Every structure is written in structure tokens, then in C-alpha cells.
Amino acid sequence: MEKFNEFFRLFSERMKGFWGSLNGPKKIGIMAAVALVIGGSATLLLSQKQTSKEYLFLNMSESDNQEIVGELKKLRVTDFMMDSKGILVAADQIIPLRLKLAQEGIPSRGMIGWEKFDDKDFTRTEFEQNINKQRAIQGELARTISSIEGINSARVSIVTPKKALFQEDEIKPTASIFIKTAPNVNLSAKQIKGIVHLVSRSVEGLVPDQITIVDQEGKMLTKIESDDPASKMTQEMLGYRRNVEAEMMSKIKSLVGRIVGQDRIDAKVDIDVDFTQEEQNIQDIDPDRVVVLSSNTTNQEMAGGGSNPTGIPGAKSNVPGEQEELAATSISNKSKRGSERINYEVAKTQRHKVLPVGNIRRISVAVIVDGSQQYPADG
Asked: Which of 1, 201, 257, 375 has its CA 20 to 30 A from that of 166?
């Protein structure tokens, strides 16, 4: 710190000496040059700030871009540029231009909505009115779906059959939705379910089972419900496998993309999942542990007394008045009995175990990186 202060002091003294050695015209010239540099820098910064451009709209179709450019020319806006992403205009004109374009229903994303009925034409037939109504519903649904995060564009097609005279002959309406997602974006199951219910609640008689959603790669995003339990289980297994593969690919691209760039890497993941369902009933017996199940003890004791019969057996002893008086002898009896019963059981433990389903047995990963890579000599 002391060296810096000393350097600053010496520099100040030299500058003062240099400035004092100059005459008046030279001082004026130096001051004018400094003012010119400062003014030029400020002007350059202000001009860059004023001419900075931002995207008016992003990822629009070619027809929408042409429609926007035509409207900008009508508004006499000449300071705009176009590239592969969209239309660039002055940053301070973004909000005013969007408001003016919105008043004209632009961008319409190439779709017709309820503005189709703004023109009152009483010469249209009922058939034309029904067709326009269906086109308006399709266009409004497509606009709403396109506004969901991660979706660049959407197209909705609805088939509404004629109402039958008898209910058993009636055919249910159907709908198909084409979705173009943003790069590296996978719609979640909740988003797909939300789109299905949005469309089903917007069309009379349309049920969620009659709606099909397909993305730009031709993959069907909706599930076909089946009454067969085996078919339902197969669909759930495939969905689980796809979700795990997509999650792994996203992590690989995110991790490696930080080093080489997100647009210079591609990854594919294939997993082998074991969906075997297994249950185990385990019974462990410990012979060293004995448990008393029940115990029963019985004690019985009897006591009593009486006289023994006497006399001469025969008829005389049984005739009244003929019995001989004999001395009676008395006796007493006592008895005692006891028992004990104990039931034993060997200790055992019973367990019911359900093994988890979906164990990953093998993971295959392929990663492609754009550009030449240099590796150290030792590998």
C-alpha cells in the first residue's frame, strides 16, 4: 500500500510538472481531445442502447412471419430484421408493436378462431355456419395448446358425426391433436392429461378416450385404455421404461453440455428392466427356543364312609321279625388323584415379502460429441 501511495504521489507531481510546462494553446488542444473522446464514447453507448433489438415473436411459422412483416410495413416500421428464430425490432418498440398487432388479430398462427364470425354474412347456409363453427373451435383450441410452455405449435382436428335418430346408433365424436414441441422438451403426463381434458370439455359429446395426441416425431403421447389387465400392465411397463430413459438422457446432455455446449451433444440410452413379480413366504424355526402354548393341571380327591351288610344270607334274613340282631361294622374310604398336561411349541417366525418390480439389469449409453477431442498421451 505504501508503494502504491508513493507511485501515485510521484505520478501526480510529474503530471503537474508536465501540465505546467505546456502553453495555453496546447492545454486547450488536450482538453478538447479529452472532451471529444468522452463525447464520442457517450454517443456510441447511447446509439447502441437505442438501436438494440429484441425478438418481437419467436418460433413462428413462415406464414405468420409474412403476415407480421406485411403489417409492419403497413405501420411504416422499417427498422426490423429477420433471422431463423424470428423478427427483431427495436427494444423500445416491442410492447407498442405487440399491442397494435394484437388489435389486428396477429399473429393468428395460421389458424382461424372466433374472429371468423366477425364478418356478418346472412347469405351463408347452415352447412357453412357449422363448418365455420368447427374451424373456429379447432383454431381456438390450437391457439390455447400452443400457449402452453414447451409447445411451439399445435393443430387440432375434430370429427363430429351427424346425430342419429336412435341413441344406440349414435357415433361418438373424435379428435386428433398434432403437437410440435420445443427442442429437448418432453411433455409430462400431467400436461398430456390436461390437454386431453381441455379438448374433451370444449367439444360436446367428446370423451377423453376418443382423443389422440401425436408429436412431431410421430410418437403417440396418449395412452390407449384397454379392459385387458395384461395390456394395461404392458403399457405401464413401457411408459416406465421410456421415462427412465428420458430422465437419464436429460441428465447426460445437461452434464456434458455444460462443457461442450448443449447443441453439440446427443445421447441415447437403452435400459433392460426386469418386470418379474415375485413374492416370498419365509418361515424361520428356532429349535433352541421352546415356548409353552398351554398348561392344564387336574387334582381329584374323594372321601366317604358307611356300614357293611351283616347276617346270614337267605330267606330268613329277609323275613320281617326273623332277622337276628348283629353288630354293625362301619367302614371309611379315601382316594386322591392328580394329572398335569403341558403343550410345547418350537419358536418360529413367518414373513411375507413382496419384491420390488422394475429392477434395472443393464444400461446401454451412446454419446456423440461434435468436434475434435484431444486426449492425454497416457489415455
From this structure: 201
- Round to whole Å and give the CA distance between 265 and 135: 41
d(CA 246, CA 189): 13
pLDDT tens for residues 230-270?
656 677 788 788 888 888 998 998 888 888 888 888 899 99
Report if residue 148 sits inside a domain.
yes
Same domain assignment for residues 1 and 135: no
- Asked if residue 276 and residue 148 are part of one domain, the reply reads no
Count up the domains in the chain and report the number: 4
**Residue 246 corresponds to which cell in the numbers above?**
428420458
How far is residue 152's CA from residue 157's CA, in Å, rounded to a whole number?
A: 17
Domain with residue 77: its CATH number is 3.30.70
Alpha-carbon span 305 to 303, nearest angstrom: 7
**Minimal CA–CA distance to 83: which of 100, 103, 58?**
58
Could you list the beta-strand ranges (E) of the chain: 53-58, 80-82, 86-90, 151-159, 174-181, 211-215, 265-274, 279-308, 329-354, 359-369
The three three-digit cell numbers of residue 368, written as one number: 456423440
How far CA 347 is from CA of 281, 282, 289, 331, 341, in Å, comes to: 17, 14, 6, 54, 20
Judgement on whether residues 101 and 41 belong to the same structural domain of the protein? no
Whole-number Å distance between alpha carbons of 65 and 57: 9
Cell for 316?
330268613
The whole model's pTM is what?
Answer: 0.41
Give CA angle at 150 (145, 152), nearest 5°. 60
**pLDDT single digits (tens) 90-131:** 888 878 887 787 767 676 655 555 555 556 666 677 777 778
Q: Which distant-in-sequence residues (6+ apart) come within 8 Å of 47 by Cβ?
A: none
Give bridge partners of residue 58 from the DSSP assignment. 86
